[in-house]
Amino acid sequence: MASELDVRARLQRAGQEHLLRFCAELAPGPRAALLAQLEPLEPEALREHCRRAAAACARPPAPAPDLAARLRPLPPERVGSASGVAPQTRRLWEEEGFHQIALNKVAVLLLAGGQGTRLGVTYPKGMYQVGLPSQKTLYQLQAERIRRVEQLAGERYGTRCTVPWYIMTSEFTLGPTAKFFKEHDFFHLDPNNVVMFEQRMLPAVTFDGRAILEQKDKVAMAPDGNGGLYCALADHQVLEDMERRGVEFVHVYCVDNILVRLADPVFIGFCVLRGADCGAKVVEKASPEEPVGVVCQVDGVPQVVEYSEISPETARLRAPGGGLLYNAGNICNHFFTRDFLQMATREFEPLLKPHVAVKKVPYVDEQGNPVKPLEPNGIKMEKFVFDVLPFAKNFVAFQVLRGEEFSPLKNADSAERDNPSTARRALLAQHHWWALQAGAHFLDAHGARLPEQPSPPGSGEPPAICEISPLVSYSGEGLEVYLRGREFGSPLILDVDTARTLQA
């Protein structure tokens, strides 16, 4: 480890020597921890990071006045649909996806570096339980979907196949996530096929360009956004690992979507058959004002335009069919070829412009007293995973139904939307509908049959509580053998053991 003198000299070159102002009064352990945190920071890179953060915050980019004239929806030939397509076409996509999975050419990559601050917890979001009858966490639901899609592909092609699970963590989430997986026996996945790696951390910066000291012995650091993926892939030789395994196609997604379909064979097959190097799942915007980015074209180039950059007048424009003209809501759910990711790490990443996030960052004052600010006081610089879309040679979008594939968990229940209750209801409503489609009947407390109709999104709990294990059904398939013509009380938890009993 570098000496204090070496670290101090490096910080002087970066103009950030204030980070050591309490070093002399620290005990040996905390002093060593602080020096270890500071040692990897390259002086020139640190100086430039702090300078760019302050400059970007002082001069936030103004929306391009001519953006509306340069904006276009994606052309129809670049867009597929999970629901608005002939059944035989959907089956063709699905079969191609299963074929690639059976050939061991598909991996999934989870973006799990963020903290659950808005959710009100201090542990990784993937460890969160939304209150399902089974008490499963997001991590467990996702692991079981991987196991099921491996099983389905293997059964179709008479082979054993593996979908490796790459998990990008951060300094905040790596330790707890690794411990959680070990405690739960990796949810019966082969640990060799679960690869965790850590994204870079960047110092939070004051408005005048000084890195923030969170504690006397700790710099305030933050993950570099989910767009930090591209540096992290290079830092940890992840793409080399994929190449050794024969992986050609990668499904990248965020941890907080309870309905996410990992290694979705329909999406994978659509992208592969279109020859895409980069793809994005999208959902139809709920309203012009919904605060989600829009997947569209600017100057003929595909990209995600943030909702704040689109004028209200443009957001309200209607297509000839009556729907929103710019309706492709981004849900951070992507397809990449490994070759494209290789180019992203080597060529595109340095060209990505960081985004400014102004946050409330705890710090110590000049006397060393800890302060929790009531107002934003710091800058965190982030890149986004979708920033590489403009570099794609053959980009496609794939529209899915929100009620089937998108219900994010971002906020505590005190918020109106995207909270544990809305996530739980979305999953239970989906499973209730799957059961009805498979021929199940549900009874109320008095033995009378309940209405056999799906619950509209946002309408509250479904008429009956039904949770179906991902190990039993990935997307509603194969349930008739257990449920057709049978009556059930509420709640029904259809796990592997219950399914085996019903089939006996």
Protein described:
- There is one protein chain.
- The mean pLDDT is 94.
- The strands form 8 sheets. The protein has an 8-stranded mixed sheet with strand order 2-20-12-15-11-3-4-5, with helices on both faces. The chain has a 3-stranded antiparallel sheet with strand order 1-13-14.
- The protein is α/β, with parallel strands linked by helices and 504 residues long.
- 32% of the residues lie in helices and 19% in strands.
- It folds into 3 domains: 55 residues, no CATH class; 339 residues, Alpha-Beta Complex (Spore Coat Polysaccharide Biosynthesis Protein SpsA, Chain A), CATH 3.90.550; 73 residues, Seminal Fluid Protein  PDC-109 (Domain B), CATH 2.10.10.
- It has 16 helices and 24 strands.
- GO terms for molecular function: UDP-N-acetylglucosamine diphosphorylase activity.
- This is UDP-N-acetylhexosamine pyrophosphorylase-like protein 1.
- It holds the Pfam family UDPGP.
Question: SSE layout and pairings?
Answer:
Layout: H1 4-14, H2 28-38, H3 43-58, H4 67-70, E1 71-72, E2 79-81, H5 87-102, E3 106-111, H6 138-157, E4 165-169, H7 174-183, E5 194-198, E6 201-203, E7 205-206, E8 213-215, E9 218-219, E10 221-223, H8 229-235, H9 238-245, E11 249-254, H10 265-273, E12 278-284, E13 294-298, E14 301-305, H11 312-315, E15 328-337, H12 338-348, E16 355-359, E17 363-364, E18 370-371, E19 378-382, E20 395-400, H13 402-405, H14 420-437, E21 441-442, E22 466-468, H15 480-483, E23 487-488, E24 492-494, H16 496-503
Parallel strand pairs: 2-20, 3-4, 3-11, 4-5, 12-20, 21-23, 22-24
Antiparallel strand pairs: 1-13, 6-10, 7-19, 8-9, 11-15, 12-15, 13-14, 16-19, 17-18
